[in-house]
Amino acid sequence: MEKISNTVLENKIFSSRMLLAFLFILVITSVLLLRLYNLQISNHNYYVEEALGNQMRTLPITPTRGKIFDRNGQIIATNQLSYKLTLTPEKTKNIAKTLLSLKQLGFINEDDIERFHKNRNRYKKFHNIPLKHKLSEKQVAEFLVSNQFVGIDVESYFHRIYPNNESSVHVAGYVSRMNKKDKAFYDKKNYLGTAFVGKVGIEKQYETLLHGTSGKKQIERNVTGRVIDTKIIQAPKNGKDLYLSIDLDLQRKAESLLEGKRGSIVAVDVKNGEVLTLVSTPIYNPNWFVDGISHKNYQLLQTSRDIPQLNRAVQGLYPPGSTVKPMVALAGLEEGIITNHSKTFCPGYYRLPNVKRKFNDWKRSGHGEVDVKDSIAQSCDVFFYDLADKMGIDTLHDNLTLFNFGSKTGIDIPGERGGILPSKSWKKINKDEPWYRGETLNAGIGQGFMTSSPLQLAVATAALANKGQLYQPKLLKNVSTSNQTIKEVDKSPSVQIPIKDIHNWEDVIEGMRQTVYAPKGSARRLNKGLTYTLAGKTGTAQVFGLDAEEEYIAEKLDERLRDHALFTGFAPIENPQIAIAVIVENAGSGSSKAAPLAREVLDVYFKKQTTH
To answer: Is the dihedral of CA 381, 387, 390, 395 positive or negative?
Structure first.
């Protein structure tokens, strides 16, 4: 028997289902309407910006770095148009896979990948992060032809180059990739797009002047991530061009004279403290560092016994030897301990009362009877042993302090060292020992604990030449402004050394004149064919002490234990323009090994003066 359907019940079930379905549709529609209202009306502005953000991004524009010139406008550091490969994380789906593919195709290597990962957290995900700098034109062409990578682009930029290679590296310094320390030090906003900063020399000293101010650009991308429009919001301000006081011709001459040697030549303008030459050898190529130094070249520099990266002109500290004798003589005259008539007999050695030890003169047969001028001209040690002993170390210290010995000169280059000017208190603090009388004798001839840099010697010699005007040496001469006008920087500050009697200064200068012109002068070989007048002082600085009875025979010694050769001087005598200091490490006699180099640099200087 068939079952009769219950129509009423079925209708009831159908109605309730319809109601539920209607309610469900109503809820869903309400949610959608509410969401639509939220998107289109309540948060309209926010989502418009977000949507635009997917296609519009603000990126930094790196300013072009300022150039560096010498005083005559010869280029020392400049920029060259180059190309770099960049990766934008936001547009690159699988970064690891993309990097591997680029490596397989030979566009990048393992070092580039490692550097990219190191740098990555410095940038936002929409920034173009540098992968490789200085692509060759061939690499650029190959990449553009086969570019199947989304988010990988080639961009142009200006690459730092040093056209003179090694020349003047210790002045200019170099730029290299920013490291963690640099990122923490420099203004994050201004350096956002910057990859390279100055590491040493002028490049570091005047980094912010050379860098300039970053700009901003807005880029618009399409859905595939390609840039379809670029708008500059804020133009970058390029770095300033710097004109240094150094003369590139003098630099090259000094470098050629010191080739194959360890040493330094520094020349300063007597009238204003401008540094005309600042050379330290050996030299090295700053271009090696710009794009990251190769392991081979790095090892070459690190393992060299000659320490090419040491700027001997400002960081090399040497016993000044006899080059301080004019200042010691001046101290004796100004303090009234000697007069220009005082004489000392030199038998070839000096003995303190009741002391067995002999203090030898460099001339074992002795100089006989000498006055202050003779003692400077012939570099008689005995005269200065006696003078130093009478003066005492603290009086000597106070007088040499006036010439800035024992302190930094304040030159505008990083890493300068101040040297040592000993005194009783210095020894107590640094050695925790009393001062001995014999040590005063050594200090009187620029030996013992005393050390100074070639720059300090040049600055002190210049102060002697211009009778007491002690200048703070300076390398930056002029700066170009935005409209390319050249503006002179502030003059070097100077202090006047107190003068008790100007005749004392004249007597000392006369002693330095006789060094070059007197028949027994220690630099008499220099006066042949001189076209200008020259006053000077030779020096030989012991690297280690000799016992009284030992004689110095250079050939028997390891080359690095031989004496340093020194020379200081200024010219012309009547109206001094230039002061010079030369040091050649382990070369022996100052008169034969250092003085001729000074003469050659000065010859170039004065030849240029007459042709200008």
So the answer is: negative
Helix, strand and coil content of the chain, in percent to the nearest 5, comes to: 40, 20, 40
Domain membership flag for residue 43: no
Same domain for 201 and 294, yes or no, is no
Which pLDDT belongs to residue 551? 46
Q: Does any domain span residue 15?
A: no
Distance CA 524, CA 12 (A): 131
Could you say which of 193, 216, 244 is where a domain stops? 244
Active-site residue identified among 82, 214, 245, 322 = 322
Residue 182 lies in a domain: yes
Instruction: State how far the Cα of 429 lies from the Cα of 84, in Å rounded to an integer.
Output: 55
Backbone phi, then psi, for 357, in 5-degree steps?
-65, 135
Cα separation, 103 vs 93, in Å, equals: 17
> In angstroms, how far is CA 8 from the centroid of its own chain?
101
| Residues 237, 342 within the same domain | no
Same domain, 274 and 222: no
Tell me the pLDDT tens digit for each residue of 96-119.
Answer: 888 888 888 888 888 888 878 877
Is residue 494 flagged as an active site residue? no
Same structural domain, 190 and 339:
no
Last residue of a domain, one of 205, 226, 244: 244
pLDDT in tens, 389-424: 999 999 999 999 999 999 999 999 999 999 999 999
Q: Which domain holds residue 142?
A: 58-244
Q: Would you state the pLDDT for residue 220? A: 78
Question: What are 156-185's pLDDT values in tens digits?
Answer: 888 899 999 999 999 999 999 888 898 889
Helix axes 393-401, 437-444, angle to 10 degrees: 30
